[in-house]
Structures are given as structure tokens and as C-alpha cells.
Amino acid sequence: METYLFESLDDTFKTEEDCVRFLTKRRWAGGFCCPNCDYHLFYIIKTRNLLECKECRTQISLTAGTVMHKSKLSLMLWFKAIRALIQDGQTYSIAAFASLLGVNYRTAKLMLEKLQLALCGQKSQTKSSIQQK
Ligand SMILES: [Zn+2]
């Protein structure tokens, strides 16, 4: 995961669509371009975080290659979690992380593990500790 791109995450992410727009921009800085036919217009399939080319109907996952891929959790939640870990630079116990995000312990543990794997080695100061037994 390219963590530097998330350093500018702020409170402007109020809806899933804001997150989708961010991810789209991140991936196609110069505007969408279909990998199959080079067409530039697309539909957003919000429920699955997919873009569909208006020309050839190729579907492209917005979250492929990120910790959010195939997750049932909302992008908003992931963005909030990433922001907490990267920007605040704090260390969280699983319980504290769960309460911050408003999710249960199991979900928080899973998210922390995935995010730590993704962030591992990218920035030494963002190491947040998972309390292992
Ligand atoms: Zn296409």
C-alpha cells in the first residue's frame, strides 16, 4: 500500500463516494482510462467498489492491491483506520482500536493485522503494536 498517498486524508471523506473518488484519482491521476479499450468514461458500482467501462463493460476493482480488497467493511471505515494509524502516529491496543472505529474486537484485530502487514517496513514510526498473547 502506498501510505504516502494517505497522508492527506482528512475530514473531507464524509461518504463512501468521497472515498471512491479519492481511490479513482489515486489510480488514474490523468483521468480514468479503461485497461481494455482505453475509453475514458465509466460507471461506479458503489456496492462493490468497482468501476465499469461505459464502452466495453470491463469491470475494474478500485481496491485491488490494497488492504481493502474484498473486504465487506466500508471504505469510510478503512480510511478512518488508516488515518488513525498513519497520521496520528499512535499505538493502539485491539480494544482501543475497536472502540475508536466502533467495530467489534474481532474486526478490529483483523483490520489492525492487515494494516500492519501493509504498513510494515514503510515507515518505522507508524509501527503500532498488536498485543499478542
Ligand atoms: Zn473499456
Number of folding domains?
A: 2
| Percentage beta strand | 5-15%
User: Looking at the structure, what is the overall shape?
Assistant: elongated
Span between termini: 27 Å
Average pLDDT metric: 82
Bound heterogens, unique: zinc ion
- Provide the succession of SSEs: HEEEHHH
Looking across the biggest beta sheet, what order are the strands in? 1-2-3
SS field, number of helical segments: 4
Task: Characterize the main sheet.
Answer: 3 strands, antiparallel
Runs with pLDDT <50, length 5+? 123-133
| Strand element count | 3
**Which percent range fits the helix content?**
25-40%
Explain how this protein is built:
Strands 1-2-3 form a three-stranded antiparallel β-sheet, with no helix packed on it. It contains four helices and three strands; from the N terminus they run αβββααα. Helix content is 35%, strand content 8%. It has two domains: 10-62, no CATH class; 72-133. Helix 3 crosses helix 4 (105-119). Residues 123-133 have low confidence and may be disordered. With 133 residues, the protein is mainly α. The protein is elongated and about 45 Å long. The protein has helices at 16-27, 75-86, 94-101, 105-119; strands spanning 42-45, 50-53, 59-61. This is Transposase zinc-ribbon domain-containing protein. Residues 14-59 form the Transposase zinc-ribbon domain.
